[in-house]
Design brief:
Helix content is 26%, strand content 20%. It contains nine helices and 14 strands. The protein binds 2-oxoglutaric acid and fe (ii) ion.
């Protein structure tokens, strides 16, 4: 299987995984990141990722206090939850999944009209070359800045399928509403002023959409769709299709996030861990590969506006609970440098 002399990462990254699969190529050594499949022989136990009904969080609801308590507990122990009652109809979530699938199923030439450079972030392609010795992900992506609108770069936005742009614009608008609701609810769940996180994120807080396409892989025992990492965002909202693969690391176990067709996974990034002074966890997660089916997901990263300093909310610091993080600026950049070395970055924010 793995040849003795695999091409260097920059050569592999200039090709799409989907192309390699269509050509019947087996994963080469830089894609191999696990040495044997025996660990995965044990199926992960059924996971109990909390499901939170967003519609119950508004104060006019009789059971809002109870749901806020469940939210707080979910984010303190898991760092993520499956959001239902978020107001986005399943038919619209299906539309997003559909345009994403149609985009990736087009011929390579069409997708490459929106190709990114190997060292760029935005556009269609793969992550820039990681540090020496780091494995590559078995995935192709379309990464787009979607908000604020003046950051959109039209050359990266698919022209086909024709409905792609309109659907993504609508999804962006819905994500803005959802981030406002979730940010307020998280603050209330911690007995903080409801706008405190929104103020830290800033009016120009960014939304970036990453469409992930995980091709089938002949060696799921050796290759990951996405390496283990914690997000550098404030938090991330993930739409999955019906193929499971995303796993969250909790209590020394990798636990699969169930595919629930009308739910969105809300997952804390390091910036929320910092702002909550560690009350909410930014969980390590990864994506497995699958030999039978392709998988598509759409991750929307919600990140503080550029140059904005963030830090632990004062209301969360007291005699019993000291400040564990300091103020940081442009954390996402620092996070990226460590990410490329396969490391977490949160320690740089430790007080
Ligand atoms: O594909 C997924 O479900 C997760 C994607 C993810 O973790 C990311 O893009 O950071
Ligand atoms: Fe992630």
């Amino acid at each position: 299987m793995a040849e003795v002399s695999a091409p260097p990462a920059e050569v592999l990254l200039s090709k799409r995984v989907q192309e390699m699969v269509l050509n019947g190529e087996e994963p080469q050594r830089p894609y191999i990141c696990r040495d044997d499949g025996t660990k995965e022989a044990i199926p992960s136990p059924p996971s109990l990722i909390p499901i939170i009904d967003i519609s119950l969080l508004s104060s006019s609801e009789p059971c809002s206090a109870q749901e806020l308590q469940r939210l707080r507990s979910a984010l303190s122990s898991w760092g993520c939850f499956q959001a239902i009652g978020h107001g986005i109809p399943k038919s619209f979530l299906d539309k997003i999944r559909q345009v994403a699938r149609e985009f990736f199923e087009q011929p390579m030439e069409e997708k490459k009209r929106h190709a990114k450079g190997v060292e760029e972030f935005e556009g269609y392609g793969a992550d820039p070359v990681p540090a020496e010795g780091q494995s590559l992900d078995w995935s192709d992506r379309l990464f787009l800045d979607v908000y604020p609108e003046d950051r959109r770069k039209p050359k990266f936005w698919p022209v086909n399928p024709k409905s792609f742009r309109g659907v993504l614009e609508e999804y962006t608008a819905k994500m803005q509403i959802l981030t406002e609701l979730v940010s307020k609810a998280m603050a209330k769940s911690l007995n903080l002023e409801e706008n405190c996180f929104l103020n830290q994120f800033g009016k120009q807080a960014a939304l970036q959409a990453r469409f992930n396409y995980y091709s089938k892989c002949q060696r799921p025992d050796l290759v990951l769709g996405l390496k283990a990492h914690a997000d550098g965002s404030g938090y991330t909202i993930i739409l999955q299709d019906d193929v499971e693969g995303l796993q969250v690391f909790k209590d020394e176990l990798w636990l699969t996030v169930p595919a629930i067709s009308d739910a969105l996974l809300v997952l804390m990034g390091d910036q929320m861990e910092i702002m909550t002074n560690g009350m909410f966890r930014s969980p390590v997660h990864r994506v497995l590969t699958n030999s039978e089916k392709e998988r598509i997901s759409v991750a929307v990263f919600y990140t503080t506006e550029p140059n904005k300093e963030i830090g632990p909310e004062e209301g969360l610091i007291n005699e019993e609970r000291q400040k564990i993080f300091k103020k940081v600026k442009d954390y996402a950049d620092v996070h990226w440098e460590y990410y490329q070395q396969g490391k977490r970055a949160i320690h740089v924010a430790k007080a």
